[in-house]
Amino acid sequence: xxxxTVGPVEMFPETLEISGRQLPYFRTPEFSEIMLENERLLKExxxxxxxxxxxxxxxxxxxxxxxxxxxxxxxxxxxLIINGGSxxxxxxxxxxxxxxxxxxxxxxxxxxxxxxRMAEADGQGYSxxxxxxxxxxxxxxxxxxxxxxxCQRNHMYLIVDxxxxxxxxxxxxxxxxxxxxxxxSQKALALSPGISMAVISARMYEERVLKTxxxxxxxxxxxxxxxxxxxxxxxxxxxxxxxxxxHRLKQIQSQGILQMNKEMQSLAERFREQLQQKGFTIPxxxxxxxxxxxxxxxxxxxxxxxxKEEYGLIVTPNGGSLADTVIRIGHLGNVKxxxxxxxxxxxxxxxxxx
Amino acid sequence: xxxxTVGPVEMFPETLEISGRQLPYFRTPEFSEIMLENERLLKExxxxxxxxxxxxxxxxxxxxxxxxxxxxxxxxxxxLIINGGSxxxxxxxxxxxxxxxxxxxxxxxxxxxxxxRMAEADGQGYSxxxxxxxxxxxxxxxxxxxxxxxCQRNHMYLIVDxxxxxxxxxxxxxxxxxxxxxxxSQKALALSPGISMAVISARMYEERVLKTxxxxxxxxxxxxxxxxxxxxxxxxxxxxxxxxxxHRLKQIQSQGILQMNKEMQSLAERFREQLQQKGFTIPxxxxxxxxxxxxxxxxxxxxxxxxKEEYGLIVTPNGGSLADTVIRIGHLGNVKxxxxxxxxxxxxxxxxxx
Lengths: 354, 354
Fold this sequence. Notes:
Two copies of one chain form a homodimer. By secondary structure, chain A is α/β, with parallel strands linked by helices. Chain A is built from twelve helices and 13 strands. In chain A, helix 1 (13-19) runs antiparallel to helix 9 (239-255) and helix 3 crosses helix 4. The radius of gyration of chain A is 20 Å and the shape is globular.
């Protein structure tokens, strides 16, 4: 089996070597030191300044998305959400559940998020923009420079779910004035799922987090941030994944995150070129380097099944209304060009009989 | 290093072999089947009937404790909490944060929870009792038969955090009319931390969960239970730990959970006998088989440090007011009698110079 999924992904042998080790007890200075280094390396990899805060949650990405909303906003806010698929919808669900007023910019599948579309939301008194930088259900990469500029001119906070964009696409926390950046362990980090992270700007921490009653013990940022000053978490964390993270962040530091983006970009571009040469269709909107959606209506589900059952190649199926329309082919983790050659050949063979 | 901790604990080589494997993609019938078997085996191991529901959360135990409270109770309830240490306190914190009225039965360190003490709370109109069956900060095991009887005669729901009692002490969901049983991966299951579970009675599900607005997306039981009908979770789970769990539950099934309790009991009793023969003091209240507290005032912290630094033996230190008073020696996971002989010898040597 080879994974071309978007999480968990094909892991690196060095990571798996760590995963298979006995875990240490974690309330120790040794583990604290690892956690403080995790914080430093993570912030460095996203271009966040030293004064930014970091929270390590034992949770899926959705837990960190919900935590970001409830620790920063209340019923007195009005938020703007880019809803271009199931992950944008998730931000809306979270706001609805917590009775935080919000409007959506709805993007039907296929539509591109433009500066013109954003300009229609100018001057509406929103306190923040919530966006999944890479809307993973569709593969669209939004223009962070454009969104950042929109937030700056409207004096809005910028909350970026970069769960599947991290490592694949350029992220610069400081340059784009990001206020909360949400990350997760099982995407380009290629670790086991179970840890999600939030990097929080000093202004968000001071102006909002410290003054907001999150209404949760488990997802409270204040508790986590207070504990992280000594390199600890308030509750027993997924220790193993945090050790995997430590190894991986050191590796990313030595490779350089921009180099990592570039390599994923060249892999994605080469694959897309070959796909199109072979007569496959990909969407017209801007794509993340993390994955390539392939339009296969109405045979997407059959393509997924045949790749899995006959070739042991696992691509990512879509749910809901897109199930028959699109498969998503990930470029995250330990995947190489020769894996894509094998995948392409299989896709061509399967297509012949669909 | 050898862990005599209460989580993470010394893991079994067979578990670590699984931890070191590449993870599969999880939105597949194969993974669903594993999850449905996880549910069946887990319920069987706690004596829960088929109609009970199970939730697998990617979270620390505290996440599951909070989820249990918010999915079952509201501001219209009045709850009773046994607060005999930091985990009882955690239930109180959760209720305070969610504005759910509660009273506490406070047990100062050293006090035993008696039927007489419970009887003082008879007829007060409480909707439920919240209890950490084994208050892990002190090592006290409460009498589940007595607490169950209290709940029955007062028509109260019974919420049992059995995180550190599971596998060590007898738990019988059906016999004791438990309504929510809370479990976690890193105690007697001896898995990586990161997954916590709740087993929910049919009556609690129908009378409460279905009718309660949990106020959370991530911790909502309804979402989880609906997904578990097809063996899935609403959000990407800690796939690796769920695979470890599957292996371990099969192992526990073939060993028998009562046999597992018995072996841990005989290990704990033999250790306590030897400790006392060597002049160490243990508390007078009833103890869980999961750990042995040793009273070492005012040298507890030094004992912990010396065992760790000089012998590579990691026992569990206490925090807060008990830091200098008590160390806790776990009996969970892959620990054998010869490990305790080594530990006892080291403790005697260290005591000589304290």
